[in-house]
TrEMBL record:
Residues 37-205 form the NADH:ubiquinone oxidoreductase-like 20kDa subunit domain. Keywords: 4Fe-4S, Iron, Iron-sulfur, Metal-binding, Oxidoreductase, Signal. This is Hydrogenase expression protein HypE. It comes from Streptomyces hebeiensis. It is found in: Cell envelope. Its cofactor is [4Fe-4S] cluster. Heterodimer of a large and a small subunit. The keyword 4Fe-4S applies. Its main location: other.
Length: 372
């Protein structure tokens, strides 16, 4: 069996061969045949603000008409019918399109002889499987924008762990950091294991508005993540952060307190899930008792393992905050008792003791105007 192995054939010219924005109609070619569990597609179907249905049905003002090709949401029965737009795009007959990659990219070059790691359809002439790498090599240079769905596609994720046999990597490692799409964009990364549904949809909406010519390019950080979504840490949005500040730490997973001593990496992880919630605003890892294991981060999972151990930095910071936190917690406890009382003038006695004393009413306790 001979398989055409994946070699990067994309333009290395940053910003070269660009297409203007201002499209009335655009295609989204979503390939989930990277090394993955398809969890990002499943997660995306839970989005509500907006939903993928809102986008496809044209319910969002200002967006181009969107034709989505995704195997889970496809009305086709699969096979050649489903593959037709992908084959047309590879021939350069379907433009413009946004390429969405889900799953990490294996290294076909390390395979000696026949074989492949993952494939998407077959070559109609030979009947041989077409590798994911084959598709990326042909579609990425023609795509108006390239977006990753999930940490595996963004940074390699679980399949790219130390000791893996596939040489898996994220898409920008495969294409090169200087890759630019036909729209002049680098790879747009939406990490998460899986993606938070609205994080992905918001990013897609921004890219679609940009394609329509009504928005600037999405602002990305140095790891090519949307800045407005990944610019804060989990800790900065966590419901339990007040416990941390008071050095009140959970010792097991049945506690509502800060979980840093039972393995939470939230203080150093870029993710908005505690603020945004998971579905319909509900959930969000540490808010509902799950330690943050850094699933949006480039080093996930190796950097954050073993998951249930206290992070080294967490150990230091929790020791340092202890004297301040314990002292402040005690003072706040005393003040809390003091402020949990009603004012003494709230009573049903015959006299008013609230201190009410209008200046026009003579009072023996107060000198009258003009008497001094
Ligand atoms: S549970 Fe994690 S994210 Fe929340 S306050 Fe504690 S360390 Fe920070
Ligand atoms: S809070 Fe942590 S574990 Fe949860 S989604 Fe964000 S990065 Fe992943």
């Amino acid at each position: 069996m001979s398989i055409e192995s994946g070699t990067t054939e994309v333009s290395r010219e940053p910003g070269g061969d660009q297409e203007r924005a201002g499209f009335d109609e655009i295609h989204i070619l979503w390939i989930s045949e990277g090394m993955s569990c398809d969890g990002d597609t499943v997660s995306m179907t839970a989005a509500g603000q907006p939903s993928i249905e809102d986008v496809v049905l044209g319910l969002i003002p200002g967006l181009p008409k969107v034709n989505l090709y995704n195997k889970v949401l496809s009305p086709s029965l699969g096979g050649e019918d489903f593959l037709a737009p992908y084959r047309a795009a590879a021939r350069g007959e379907l433009t413009p399109f946004i390429l969405v990659i889900e799953g990490s990219i294996p290294n076909q070059n390390i395979i000696e002889g026949d074989g492949y790691w993952t494939s998407f359809g077959n070559d109609p002439d030979t009947g041989e499987p077409l590798t994911l790498n084959w598709w990326i090599d042909r579609l990425a240079p023609k795509a108006w924008a390239v977006v990753t769905a999930g940490t595996c596609a963004a940074y390699g994720g679980i399949h790219a762990m130390a000791g893996n046999p596939t040489g898996s990597m994220g898409l920008s490692d495969y294409l090169g950091r200087d890759f630019r799409s036909r729209g002049g964009l680098p790879v747009v990364n939406v990490p998460g294991c899986p993606i938070q549904p609205e994080n992905f949809m918001e990013t897609l909406i921004w890219v679609l508005h940009h394609a329509a010519g009504s928005a600037p390019p999405p602002p990305l950080d140095h790891m090519l993540r949307p800045q407005w979504l990944f610019g804060r840490t989990v800790h900065e949005g966590c419901d339990r952060a007040a416990y941390y500040e008071q050095a009140d730490f959970a010792r097991d997973y049945n506690s509502p307190k800060c979980q840093v001593k039972v393995g939470c990496w939230g203080p150093v992880v870029n993710c908005n899930v505690p603020k945004r919630g998971w579905m319909a605003g509900l959930g969000g890892c540490p808010n509902v008792g799950g330690i943050c294991i850094g699933c949006t981060m480039p080093g996930f999972p190796d950097t954050f393992m073993p998951f249930m151990d206290e992070p080294a930095g967490g150990s230091l910071s929790s020791i340092l905050i202890k004297p301040y936190g314990a002292f402040i917690r005690r003072l706040r406890g005393i003040t809390n008792i003091a402020v949990n009382r009603e004012p003494k003038w709230h009573h049903n006695k015959p006299e008013l003791t609230s201190g009410y004393a209008p200046y026009w009413r003579p009072s023996p306790a107060r000198p009258q105007r003009g008497t001094r």
